[in-house]
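Below sits our specimen:

——
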Amino acid sequence: MRFLISCIVLIVFLGAHSLSFSQSNFVVPDSINSFVFSKGANNQIKLITPFGNHVLKDSVFIYEKFKDLNFSKQINDIGRPLSNNEYRSIVLNEKLHLFHNGGGVVFEDFEDSFRRVDNSTLHLNQASGFYFEIDNRLHLYGGYGLWTHKEYITFYNPTVKQWDINYHNSNYVPTARWKAIGDYAGNKLYILGGRTGDSNVALDVDFDLDDIFLYDFESGMFKSLGKANPFLIKTYSNFALPKYESSIVLTTPEKITMIDFVNNEVVENIVLGEFLNHNSRFPCFIVDNNLYYISGFDNLSIKSYDLTQLDSEEIQKNIYPLINDTAESEPLKVVLIGFVSLLIFWVMMKLFVYQDHIKDLVLYDKSGIYYRKRFVSMSATEIKFIQLLSSEPFVSASMLNEILSDKEYSKSHLTELRDKFVLKLKSKIENLTGEKDGVYETKHTDDKRIKGYKANGAFKKKTSFIIHLFKIK
């Protein structure tokens, strides 16, 4: 019985221990007031103070005092307190480096302490710029300083111990910004959002950006990639985000969001309330699949979240493309709208021209003649004669005889047939147009012996508006 109870207690203990490991909580001692939350070159979570490091080892903070006060004196000389608001950390050449948020000052880990390695000054010119590493060189994109947001990239050159500008060849330069979300992969810098301001509104007011672009270090060119998917709520960060596999990790109170720039994918993992007290004044770090972050605002603690838990089927996921397809198609929409508008304008113009063109014409087809909106039916013989009048300036009596009859009649009989035919046709035209002499008898201009007929006006074959629409002349 005792053995059974012991087994149960052991199982409960192991379960509790496993849970605490997956979601650990380490209280920051009240005695630690000024520190930089960072991850060392050996993947140890540590709190850097002016006098020593508090290193997290086996779930316990171990204090490692610096051998002298040189670091503390240098921090005092700079005049900026040692905190994550003032200093950022990054590993270069397998050494932990601290650099000032605005650029300029650079420290490196040296003999279990820190020493200043730059010959620069306190820039205060790229606050909250996105920081990243290329070939063990520290780079900064954007930032804020001297009342303006920045749009350029700088880097720290350890050879001359100075900062320099990365010059580009691009005509397109994205909007200046700070607090951008970024990633460096394949010799390309990817940037999402950030914040910027408008000097026409107020110097102390900025707003979110939602654009996405890259900078190619080989070509020295910026390239716009489009707009962020509106499903992505947060598009800025005070710190460079940690990377897990091929994605950077963005935390909000209810989500762990994986952003993969290269594959254009966002995976939202719903973890309700897990990061409710995440203090965004501090960065996050990943060590052995565990995401470490500072929780709380008065009483601080370091918490960790086991990212392998996200593989569980119990975790709800939202997956969508990072770049908004609608935004990508906006230029095409503008072109299509412009084309359709131009087409409508052209059709309307053609319609007005068509209406003006037929306004005073007598139109005909196989069924009759038209004038404005009125119509009179015609026989096939009458239509044939009108068609001849529309194509010939003079229709002789003999030509009309051939239309009226293919039989041989006397001259007087043919004259009578012509007179009756023309009189009837003139009556129809007069009823339609009001014109008494729509067709009249006349002599040929070159030979007065030849009698014939002309139309007092224009007969035109009726054509549809569609045919007129595509008629060039």
Observations:
- Confidence is low (pLDDT under 50) at residues 1-22.
- DSSP finds eight helices and 36 strands in the chain.
- Residues 151 and 174 are 7 Å apart (CA to CA).
- Helices lie at 2-22, 70-78, 325-328, 330-358, 380-391, 397-404, 411-433, 465-469.
